[in-house]
Amino acid sequence: MDRYEIILYWSDEDQAFIADVPELPGCMAHGESQEAALANVKQAMQLWIDTAGEFGDPVPQPKGHRLMFA
Q: What is the per-residue pLDDT for 69?
């Protein structure tokens, strides 16, 4: 699988770790531990990529560097 940046953080609202993949819009997952959130988001990433391919939607290439947020 390509290497996309994953942002992992704790959500007080959800009482769970959230793993977000900014380069794949809407692709995120959660888990009770950091490890669980990462495992779940890896599955979500593969599903996102597979679904985009099925519908002929473009799959962004990973930028290969840290994203910048302003």
A: 59
